[in-house]
Design goal:
Glycosyltransferase, Glyco_trans_4-like_N, Glyco_trans_1, disordered C terminus, Rossmann fold, 2 domains, six-stranded parallel β-sheet, alpha/beta, Glycosyltransferase_grp1, 414 residues, 16 helices
Length: 414
Amino acid sequence: MHVLVVHNRYASAQPSGENKVVDQEVALLRGAGHRVEVFERRSDDIAARSLPGKVAVPLLVPWNPAVRTELAALLRAERPDVVHVHNVFPLLSPAVLAACADAGVPAVATLHNYTQVCPPGTLQRDGRPCTECVGSAAALPAVRHGCYRNSRLATVPLAVSLRVNRRRWWSGVERFLCISAAQRAVLVRAGMPADRLAVKHNFVPDPDARRSGDGEHLLYLGRLAEAKGVRLLMTAWDALAASGGVGVPLVIAGTGPLEAEVVAWAAGRDDVRYVGLYDTAECQKAIARSVAVVAPSTWLEAFGLVVVEAMAAGVPVVAAGHGAFVELVEDGVTGLLHRPGDSASLASCIRRIAAEPDHNRETGQAARLRYEQGFSPAVGLERLLEEYRTAIAGRSAQTRGGDTRASRGDGDTR
């Protein structure tokens, strides 16, 4: 199969699960003998733009005409079987869908977050779940609250893009790949076309390192941000420390807006180690040495890559009991689920997972089995190709029937 992958890479200064998923899927397809090309832009390149070029970036968020022209020419020249769209913010824009329609190539889109119904894509505001914009075509609440980067001005391009491109997305994509059933349910309630929303979990490569003993630390691995539950974890850990601790230290790996706060909190303590940003090999080793991996997100995670990475290494997880975590983690079997936003519940689960080594080993073994059955590369490849074939067949049926749905978009003639 001939696949063209479209992706706007996130800035390298911040770890990105989306970048990782895209790279892994490209490698998986190529390893299976498929021809894969990548059409991309990089957010890192914005820094090298001239001042006028930087000022113009927000204008490209709703629509980048140069991308439409360039991609359409590439598609006509290469004639791939399918285009797989990932992130288009901020430099690609939904113009990529118009390019696919121009060239008559079916498009599949992985929805890594909730940007189809929420401008910042988090369904969260001020550290709490928020669905004010779900079902609202204009997304005015997001602008009013300045939901993207706490700025009304920065939120406007995202809200405008959501408004003017809604029908283009919903009519120009043959198959939307939701990364969890929880995410799909939110999008269906928001009015997205249910018949084209499929669940395809992310896969995780089989790690080089798996846990062989009981583990030597608890691990938080991810972005240091409010939505990821870092402050909640610090509060829970302080309560555990005040009651005598759990016998192993907490290791925090990552970077983000709360880094200075985490560094100050960990300073001078022997029960906490902040280790900064790990590369892939270091992440795998840290996971394999864990008693458990902690994922206390306060926002409704659309997936949770670190949870599955822990499962792959035979390590149980303590995760918030909402969003995708509920379908990834079987409470008491492959890990423990705590009450979302409840530091006492989180502390109780951490204490329990660390205090019962025999049960911890059984839980880790069950987690590994869950990974093999649902999140291995073989499973991921099979599901990906299945969705590609469905998209290609759908486009062929439209062509035979004279359906111009994908090219109509939202009536925009740009």
